[in-house]
């Protein structure tokens, strides 16, 4: 996979969005899309577009705006990164302190170190130093000056004298501005492009700071969070002054509230992490333990709620859920577990994706999901967040309704068919397709949103998907006048995939793979196969599993005809398709394939909780 394909597939949509928003088809067919001048409409090469913005919770008090950039500009950005990766990689090597250095690992771009590396760096450097300078850049991504991209790559003085030169920095600057309607302040947050740009600038900051300090200061930078270690207070204060001047050179400022000098001793691991990960549930299966488990569940969630009152840290709920989902509950305790999770999501909405995944997984496992309670919960989330324009909460509640077949009532339907956000509009139209809205809405407001003839405003995605899905009386004529979108349309590229990463599809893929792995002849009855593993599933999943196995059998036979006797190649291909190394998939795989007597699955809980 090329860097271009990776950036289009993995780096276009933010992970904060429900997984039905997918750029896989764009990545798969990118070689069919030509973005050179001759294949674009007039002024297409320098055309500007508006961002599709949506708000997500940062913590209990603040929110952050994430964005989806226009595909034309993102393809150009991805192509440039691919072409210039060797030069960009050399630039990243200039930093000796970055933990977020982007490296190429096989066909993927990824950070060189994980979140846990920060703690290890602290431990390594505090044995010989007494003072810690903690630095945070104030509103880093929203404050980045796009013209500082060439400054970071080529030097500020040179770049100012050569603003029209065709070089990497100037090209990245232009593409970034075109993504956001010409704005020079801030960069789009959400796509992988923002990680690359911030690391380009962060590397230059690291290099400048090191040169001005005139000696190698022990420390690290993780995106915009920095820690440096010193033997005395004077050294730390001097470094703070130096860093302030370095940041000013890139039009950036220190966050005065989070920038501090601390003296050891200091806590290496937060109390709530230590408490939650060491909480002890009973791992042994016994019907006598049902009541005890119920008491422990209440005690565990009570600890989480207490930590929310005690600390203003983000990630408490996410971490807590990732710990407890390793314990497989008794069916008798599901009802209270569901209620506790829903209560947690009302306190901290960042846990919504995890809550939905856990509920779906237990649902397909045959546990007694309380759909009445969940239906009321979905409507409560919509009611509380529509007026506040909290897009994230609405999107995930609609995603839950779509997956579990929950029909929205009259009030929710009325409010959502007037909601001014491109992504929410698409989710509502998907619910409409499934007959999950009240009555027969006319969508007059939605039609007004896309009445503008341009495909470069904040509703381009809604208008394009209306054309591909036949919604709101739109068809191919709506995109035919634009050469770029005409290419997308005729290559049948959509940005919606109802099956992508859904729990139901993952479950079916997992068990299909397990079935063929164990039964080479593929003739064992499905229910016998499930009984052998003591796996209990809902009937609807068993039926879909049977269909999946039949299709896979046909595909295997076809592949064997093509490849002759080399069946190992075929088998290997299926494994590649079915199994994923994603940590979230690891939990789901182990949970679904667990037997009815199993109480615990061992999946590492990553300390990266931000």
UniProtKB/TrEMBL annotation:
MF-aspect GO terms: RNA-directed DNA polymerase activity
Keywords for the protein's UniProt record, in alphabetical order: Nucleotidyltransferase, RNA-directed DNA polymerase, Transferase
Keyword DNA-binding: no
Phosphoprotein among keywords: no
A Pfam family reported for this protein in Swiss-Prot or TrEMBL: RVT_1
InterPro entries: RT_dom
Reverse transcriptase domain boundaries: 1-305
Protein name in UniProt: Reverse transcriptase (RNA-dependent DNA polymerase)
């Amino acid at each position: 996979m090329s860097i271009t394909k990776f950036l289009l597939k993995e780096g276009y949509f933010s992970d904060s969005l429900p997984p039905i928003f997918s750029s896989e088809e764009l990545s798969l067919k990118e070689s069919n899309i030509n973005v050179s001048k001759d294949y674009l409409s007039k002024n297409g090469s320098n055309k500007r577009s508006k961002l599709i913005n949506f708000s997500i919770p940062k913590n209990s008090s603040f929110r952050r705006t994430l964005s989806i950039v226009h595909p034309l500009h993102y393809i150009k950005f991805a192509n440039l990164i691919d072409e210039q990766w060797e030069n960009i990689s050399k630039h990243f090597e200039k930093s000796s302190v970055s933990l977020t250095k982007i490296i190429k690992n096989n066909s993927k771009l990824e950070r060189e170190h994980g979140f846990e590396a920060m703690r290890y760096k602290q431990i390594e450097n505090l044995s010989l130093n007494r003072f810690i300078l903690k630095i945070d850049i104030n509103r880093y991504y929203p404050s980045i000056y796009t013209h500082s991209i060439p400054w970071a790559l080529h030097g500020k003085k040179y770049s100012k004298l050569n603003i029209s030169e065709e070089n990497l920095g100037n090209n990245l600057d232009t593409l970034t501005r075109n993504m956001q309607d010409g704005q020079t302040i801030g960069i789009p947050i959400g796509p992988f492009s923002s990680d690359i740009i911030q690391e380009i600038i962060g590397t230059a900051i690291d290099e400048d700071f090191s040169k001005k300090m005139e000696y190698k200061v022990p420390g690290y930078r993780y995106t915009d969070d920095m820690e440096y270690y010193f033997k005395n207070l004077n050294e730390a204060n001097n470094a703070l002054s130096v860093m302030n001047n370095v940041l000013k050179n890139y039009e950036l400022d220190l966050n005065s509230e989070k920038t501090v000098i601390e003296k050891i001793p200091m806590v290496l691991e937060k109390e709530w992490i230590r408490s939650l990960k060491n909480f002890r549930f009973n791992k042994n299966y016994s019907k006598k333990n049902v009541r005890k488990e119920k008491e422990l569940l209440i005690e565990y969630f009570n600890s989480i709620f207490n930590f929310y009152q005690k600390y203003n840290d983000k990630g408490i709920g996410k971490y807590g859920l990732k710990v407890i989902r390793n314990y497989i509950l008794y069916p008798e305790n599901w009802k209270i577990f569901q209620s506790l999770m829903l209560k947690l999501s009302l306190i901290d909405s960042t846990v919504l994706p995890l809550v939905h995944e856990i509920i779906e997984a237990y649902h397909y496992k045959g546990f007694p999901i309380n759909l009445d309670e969940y239906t009321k919960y979905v409507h409560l989330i919509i009611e509380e967040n529509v007026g506040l324009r909290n897009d994230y909460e609405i999107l995930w509640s609609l995603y839950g309704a779509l997956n579990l077949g929950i029909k929205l009532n009259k009030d929710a339907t009325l409010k959502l068919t007037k909601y001014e956000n491109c992504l929410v509009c698409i989710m509502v139209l998907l619910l409409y397709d499934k007959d999950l809205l009240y009555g027969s809405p006319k969508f007059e407001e939605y039609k007004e949103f896309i009445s503008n003839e341009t495909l470069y405003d904040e509703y381009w995605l809604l208008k394009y998907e209306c054309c591909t899905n036949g919604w709101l009386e739109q068809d191919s004529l709506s995109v035919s006048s634009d050469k770029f979108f005409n290419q997308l349309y005729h290559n049948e590229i959509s940005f919606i995939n109802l099956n992508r990463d859904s729990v139901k599809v993952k479950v079916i893929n997992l068990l299909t793979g397990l079935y063929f792995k164990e039964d080479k002849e593929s003739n064992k009855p499905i229910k016998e196969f499930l009984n052998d593993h003591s796996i209990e599933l809902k009937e609807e999943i068993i039926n879909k599993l049977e269909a999946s196995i039949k299709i896979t059998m046909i595909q295997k036979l076809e592949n064997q005809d093509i490849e002759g006797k080399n069946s190992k190649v075929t088998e290997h291909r299926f494994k590649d398709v079915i199994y994923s190394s994603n940590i979230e998939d690891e939990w789901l795989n182990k949970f679904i394939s667990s037997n009815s007597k199993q109480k615990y699955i061992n999946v590492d809980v990553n300390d990266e909780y931000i």
